[in-house]
Amino acid sequence: MKKTRNTRQRGVILDILRESHEHPTAEMIYRESRRVLPHISLGTVYRNLNFLRDQGTVREIRPCEGGSSRFDRADTPHAHFHCVRCNALLDIPLPPALESLRFEEERISAVSLIDLHVIGSCSSCGEATTN
Ligand SMILES: [Zn+2]
Ligand SMILES: [Zn+2]
Fold it and tell me: Which superfamily does CATH assign the domain made up of 76-123 to?
């Protein structure tokens, strides 16, 4: 009975994730989705994100040092670079050694997700303070 509405909400959320390259937080997705669905609540956005994550359609990227989770579509395997200065989250390719892990490691039979997070500062923020 609520199926059509849920499908529509999920479609809107997936469109936002497809168009955004910033890895938005649930709050950002909520603000964006209200342009299309003015009556949607933040709780509904969270519920749909959790559903899509459990289903494997959406990836939740948990920040290393607190802060809000960021969301991404899960259709292409990639790693993330996190700039600690401006909080940008950039897509970076997976190292080939990790991509071929499942073929080279006898102890692994299937890989469902590689969650690789590289931390530093992006080129717009300049070099990291290394001390
Ligand atoms: Zn930066
Ligand atoms: Zn990503």
Answer: Ferric-uptake regulator, C-terminal dimerisarion domain (3.30.1490.190)
Give the rounded distance of the alpha carbon of 16 from its chain centre: 12
What is the CATH topology of the domain spanning 1-74?
A: Arc Repressor Mutant, subunit A (1.10.10)
88 CA distance to ligand 2 middle (Å): 11
Q: Which two tokens stand for residue 11?
A: 């479609």
Amino acid at site 55: Q
Query: At 52, is the pLDDT very low, low, confident or very high (cuts 50, 70, 90)?
Result: very high
- For the chain, the structural domain boundaries read 1-74, 76-123
Residue 79 · residue 23 · CB < 8 Å: no
Which ligand approaches the C-alpha of residue 59 most closely? 2
The pocket of ion ligand 2, defined by CB under 5 A, consists of 72, 91
Cα-to-centroid distance, 91 and ligand 1 (Å): 13
Rounded distance from Cα 130 to ligand 1 centre (Å) = 15
Q: What is the pTM of this model?
A: 0.81
